[in-house]
Amino acid sequence: MTGLLPRHLQIIYLINWLNLKKLAEHGKTDPAVVSSVSLIDESGDKSVRMGHLAFLGSRKVNGVSALHTELMRRTVFQGLEALNPGKIVNKTNGISFRRWLFQSNPRLTSLLIEVLGERVWDNSEVLAELETFANDRSFVLRYADVRLKNKIALARRIRDLTGILVDPTGLFDVHVKRIHEYKRQLLNILETIALFNAIRAQPGSNWTPRVKIFAGKAAANYTHAKLIIKLANDVARVVNSDASVVDRLKVAFMPNYSVSLAEEIIPAADLSEQISTAGMEASGTGNMKLALNGALTIGTLDGANIEMRERLGPDSLFIFGLTATKVDDKRRARFTGWDATQACPMLADVIDDIASGAFSPDEPGRFRMLTQALLDYDPFMVAADFDAYWKTQRSIDTLWKQPQAWWRASITSTARMGWFSSDRAIREYAEEIWDVGARGSGTSEA
Fold first, then answer.
1. pLDDT tens string 384-415
2. DSSP conformation letters of 220-277
3. What is the signed CA dihedral for 258, 262, 263, 269, rounded to 10 degrees?
4. Exposed (0-12), middle (13-18) or buried (19+): which is 279, by Cβ within 10 Å?
5. How confident is the model at residue 82 (pLDDT cuts 50, 70, 90)?
6. pTM of the full predicted structure?
7. Which is the CATH superfamily of the domain at 97-422?
8. In a 3-state reduction of DSSP, which class is residue 370?
9. Is the dihedral of CA 102, 309, 343, 226 positive or negative?
10. What ranges do the domains of the chain cover?
């Protein structure tokens, strides 16, 4: 009985009664429809659908990226969307240029002000004019020099924090974010091991020098994430001590990741890793911060990567892997990592190396939990996307060897990121959701 329920549940049941009463008044009595919009999930033990409750209590619901806005409409809120068309909107989030360009990258900021003027301080859209300098040899050299100075500073920081010496002229491949299986730091580590094996097998080849930079924290009780951190550090120890690899590959996991450390890493990044399992990243802002500072992006069609691809074009953003729809298909088919290894011997060798203790000789079984999860049902599609990821990374190697094309793409990335300013995102909220555009503009009507 409702009278026996705690007061907060009584309120929720009342809200649900009013919600379903309104449904009936509009002739919506189909049990499936009623069930889909009810605040109470009765498919098993009764539970409150908190997302549904938030939906009913909101004037608008924002998906924060085009992909996830559409996913909300088609999946979790499908029934509610049908009854409230237009309530779900998309306002892609943005970043503070004042923090992630002007404060974090003073060298690049000085160069931008010199060529674009001080108006760049207040209007991110002015950055678009930078694209006219992408083929200006003098400007390109100065832009590249800014990056090199930032990389020299980061190389010193890596040395101070980890003791690892890296060559600042190599490609700085940066993967910095919270450690989580869906963000797929593990995929990056697998590719690192495959590259390590390839360099040792063909030491005479013209390999693109890479510095793999990882940073991020894991939740205290997230065992798999902590194992991924341990694996990254173990791989770094083995790779960095191998004399046959020298400076063609270095790996550094920077400890105690923070916003302050991010401000040192992001201005020095050449390549931004945005490789989450498609359909799982709500939007992302690290991708925006890195691209703004001129890093090229390797990523999946997930979150704001989609909007970034539309605005940056294919030269600055390298897309690989399964789409969100294909991920769902493989999950329904219970795709396993073992299936992927049958088509990709390189992946099989990498997993065997980890499982055999090649990177943990003191404890050969240390990563058994990770390798077994990779070979079994693989919900994060790490193994499924490995081959595409490897091939895309090699195309990036090729571009790095063409400095003119690389820097043109890098400058274009900075120039086209103006739209991703938080100023734009807040303005859209003010005008289209909060309805405070006129008041906020300082104008009034007679």
1. 999 999 999 999 999 999 999 999 999 999 99
2. TT-HHHHHHHHHHHHHHHHHHT-TTTGGGEEEEEESS--HHHHHHHGGG-SEEEE-PP
3. 170
4. buried
5. confident
6. 0.91
7. Glycogen Phosphorylase B; (3.40.50.2000)
8. helix
9. positive
10. 2-89, 97-422
